[in-house]
Amino acid sequence: MAAAVWTVALAALLLPRAEAQLQAYTDNVTGYVAGSALITNAQCRERAVMGECLSEYGCAWCDARSINPARNPQCMSLFETSACPLQTTPHLTPRLPEQPFPACDARCGAIGLRDSCISAPGCGWCGATGRCVSGSYDGGPCVECAGGWAYRYGRQCPPGYGGEAEAAAGGDCSTCKCQNGGECTARGDCSCPELYTGTMCQTLKTRVDACHAHGDWDADLDDCVCDVGYVGVGDNRCAFRCDPATTCGGRGYCSELTGKCVCDTVAAGVNCECVATPLTTYPFADPVKNQYEKELGCCGYGFEPCPSSASNAGQCVLAPANGDKCPVFKEDNTTLVILVVLAGLFGGYVAAAVIAYCQTAPAPTCRVVARLPEALSLRESLFKRSEMDVASKHFLEIEVPLTHNFWRVKRMLSRRLKSQPDPEDMVLSYLGSELHNRWRLSDGIQCGDTVHVKMRLRSIEPTEFVRKRDAWRARVNAYLTEDNIVTAAYVFGLLVIVVALVAWPGDADRRL
């Protein structure tokens, strides 16, 4: 609801308190109209922050986090203070009727901006002093404010008459709306039958209904005892999962009304994970002190983090963080689908071409048998497969497609020959006629299965292989003359005789 500015001049419109007390204001949470009597524990529990709690007569703020970090601070009645483990320490801070002002909440005093102050629960802005102080719409500020007291809520109906929703709808707050036999009290809340509870007596006193399945109903306390890690009051008893030590990082506590973290004066953020500076940035993060602002979403005043669904998730942008500043790129696979379809069509075309090629008849070929001159022989190193390949070859047989010309035939023959002659020096003839290079096998040649051609070399000089072979043979013949052979035979015979004489032991002594 819109913030309202209240001054002391409005005191005449509100209910008076006891003598020497602050004039009454309308309460910001429950709509109770304050009186001189002490209120019940359930009513105190509705004051979920320290400032609101201490502004109500008969309520005390119990903060036991120093001995149990997991225990959430609570606002309780002075009649129930025995439940607070620190009742003899200043952490249990009651306000007695004779005290004109309650203790102030340091959390509100650390806020330096008016709008931030009014939006913080339990805090209001004193225009006369220009300071943010704790308090409530019903109890007023915690210190004397000469004028300009502004709080976040305006007029509210009492809870039994519709509460905030009835006031927002423009109702006259005159009809009691208690259910299941409940009745409206003088304070404006509902007095419920024994089996029912809730703002309008709409809920059964069971674990599932009243305690949202996260606590047990205690008949003596007439309230839920929440499981560890759950908080909540009123119609939201035990409805919020929040723990001051883990959820708020030990730098704040959980609001019983909303389940959100109420951070200390040096912290900010949803889980109090950011660093704040009192009087300058609190309750917002200090961008200067937060090095990982984008990752943590520690945004300063006037900035908001982009949601996790945005492409720049966690980045701080000027409020509001709408779609223009935090664009959400939806996954678009249109291009990928098109590429997959094109790839499938291309793959199908290639597959069809390969199948068609494999199923068609092979290109017609012709077996060409070339008669080799004596100077040429096959390459034994590459084509020796059996003993038949070792014997001297006078013919060379190759398989040639009919589309080849005779230049390619010469190249194929040259690669099969040991001496690798130049195809330009090779001459092929068929039936006495020379075959030109550009002619193809299908041009005028009757090729059934085999075509016999004759090959010769244009150059009369022997090839390098022939020259080396003739030189080796000449060297062998120079040594194998008749005189050399006879001499070698005589030398071998003499060696045999010498070896025999050396190895003979002689005749044994013969005694008669």
UniProtKB/TrEMBL annotation:
Disulfide bonds join C192-C201. The chain crosses the membrane at residues 336-358, 485-504. Keywords: Disulfide bond, EGF-like domain, Membrane, Signal, Transmembrane, Transmembrane helix. InterPro entries: EGF (IPR000742), Ubiquitin-like_domsf (IPR029071). Residues 1-20 form the signal peptide. Residues 169-202 form the EGF-like domain. This is EGF-like domain-containing protein. It comes from Micromonas pusilla (Picoplanktonic green alga).
